[in-house]
Structures are given as C-alpha cells and as structure tokens.
Amino acid sequence: MLISPILTGHQPEFMPWLGYLSKAKMGDVYYMLDHIQFVKEVFQNRNKIRIKNKPGWQWLNVPIKNAKKIQIWHDVKIDNSQPWKRKHLNAIKMSYSKAPYFNEIFPEIEQLYMGFKGDKLIDFVKIIVKYAFKKFNITTPIKYTSKIKGIKGKKSDLIISMCESCNAKTFIFGKFGNTYIEWDKFLNVKPVFQNFNHPIYSQIHGEFIPNMSFIDLLFNHGDNSKNILTQSTYNYE
User: Fold this and answer.
1) Average pLDDT estimate for 60-73
2) Could you tell me if residue 32 is inside a domain?
3) In 10 A of CB 153, how many CB atoms?
4) In which domain, by residue range, is 136 found?
5) Long-range contact set of residues 152-156: C-beta below 8 Å, sequence gap at least 24
C-alpha cells in the first residue's frame, strides 16, 4: 500500500507513449521537469506513429532552434521557419486515415496544432499532454518544476527536493530508476518503481508494434482507449 501524497514526474515528452501516461496516473501529483537540461534526439521533441511501410513506424519531429547548444527545457524554442505543423498533420493523416476513429480524433489533433501560435516547445507539449490526460481520464494535477521555488539538485537530491516541495511520502520512479537511485538518501520518502505492461490492441498496418505515441491507440480505439490503457503496478526495488 502506497502512502500519500504520492509524487511522480518526468521530463516533458512530445506526443508521449502509453507508459508515460500510465505513470502519471499513479500519482497524487505529477511534476513535469521543465527546469532541467533539454536532450535532443530522444523523445523530448519527437515520438513515433505507425505507418504501413517498413519498419512500420516513423518519427514526428518538432524542429528546434539552437539544437546544438545546451538549453534548459523551458527556454527551448521551435523553429517555426520550417513547416513542421503541416508535415506532422500530413503524416498523421496518411498513416491513420483508414483507422476506425480517424474522423473523431484527427479534427481534435488538427485543432491543437493549428491553434498553437507560440514558439516555445514546452507550451506545445503542455497542450498535447493535457489533451492526452483528458482523453484517458487522467485527473492527476500537473505542476511545472520551473514554477516551484526551492527545487534544486540532481538525480536523487533533485527527487528528494521535489518530494519536500509537496510533502510527498512516496515517489514513483520509472522502470529503471533502481539503476541510479541513491538509497541512503530516501529516509523520509518511500521509493517505488513503475512496472508497466504495455497493452496489446488491434492496430492498423499489420502486426502490433508497441511504444507508439498515445495517438495510435486513440485512432484505433477511440473512447475505449482509456479502458485499454492498463494501470501500472509497482515494485519496491
């Protein structure tokens, strides 16, 4: 039995995968770590969607300015000189136009894209993640670490600082958190580790491929997606 308040968190991710959403659902509060260093070419400004051709998926990549420089997450700006919105929407339409719930989901996603007029990546990610929370009935409140005074440190020290900021008694790490946790620092906070079993669902374009963006499940299963997204369990070590 986990002791509340339960905190979980993660660096921002664009079009996150299902494990990200399931982890957020586990907490009483969810911290989006937008005060740390941005890392390109992982999942922070890109994610995967299904396609018909090999290898069965492709990236949706948001181009950023000063990509070769060290940047803090909340300062990262999108390179709006590139037609990334049109490219994304065309790719999504090409991939999912024959999906069962395309006519329901695509207009919603199109509205998110076309309604965004800013240039900060974090602002667009917030819009996408809030949409995902709504579609999957995730009510965990989101807090942004750049807006919370007193949060400091790195690795375990950072996590302890975050827990102290909201009086959390339990912190939920990701699956591989036990590879870097400093156990001796968790005297007043119980660390646990997410155990996410990816659901297998009917998916267009052939054999099932996991770890796509959450929109893949929405296009294939619509409102029932919230029932398909499995509740993560946890391990103590």
Assistant:
1) 93
2) yes
3) 12
4) 6-235
5) 155/180, 155/182, 156/180, 156/181, 156/182, 156/185, 156/186
Distances (CA, A) of 218 to 9, 119, 149, 196: 23, 27, 36, 19
**Angle, to 10 degrees, between the axis of helix 121-135 and the axis of helix 102-115?**
150
Question: Model confidence at 67, in pLDDT bands (50, 70, 90)?
Answer: confident
Residue with tokens 């996408």: 128
pTM recorded for the entire structure: 0.95
* Rg for the chain, CA atoms, rounded: 18
102: left (phi over 0), alpha (psi -120 to 50) or beta: alpha
**Per-residue pLDDT band at 59 (split at 50, 70, 90):** very high
Amino acid of residue 44: Q
DSSP 141: P
**22 contacts 230 by C-beta, under 8 angstroms:** yes
| DSSP assignments along 7-60, one per residue | EEEE---SS-BHHHHHHHHT-SEEEE-TTSB---SSSSSEEEEE-SSTTSEEEE
Look at the block and give the residue holding tokens 């890109």: 46
Asked, for residue 1, whether it belongs to a domain, the answer is no
Q: Total domain count for the chain?
A: 1
Is pLDDT of 102 > 90?
yes
User: Among positive and negative, which fits the CA dihedral 40, 46, 50, 51?
Assistant: negative
